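Thread: quick sanity check before group meeting

JM: Hey all, I'm pulling together slides for Thursday and realized we never actually wrote out the predicted structure for the chain we discussed last week. Dropping the sequence here so it's in one place. If anyone has concerns about the input, flag it before I start.
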Amino acid sequence: MADNFTDHTQTFNFEALQQPDMQQILTLVYDALKEKGYNPISQIVGYILSEDPTYITTHNNARSLIRKIDRDELLKAMVRTYLGE
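JM (edit): ok, ran it. Output follows.
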């Protein structure tokens, strides 16, 4: 069987692919928390700080969705947005 791999390292820009997805996921999670009567901002901040998924409701699959986001990348994106970069 022939080996189809090359010796060249491929690069991947994770941030460029994730920015719209992160925003969409956060919006869906925010909406799910609001629908269930929670304070969405407080719950999302609690999750970001602790990485404890129980801060996020399972309603509308929100808990599974938020776990797809890398917290470090999310924080970078939030700081960039806050600073206007």
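AS: nice. DSSP finds four helices and no strands in the chain. The helical segments are 14-35, 40-50, 62-66, 71-83.
JM: adding both to the slides.
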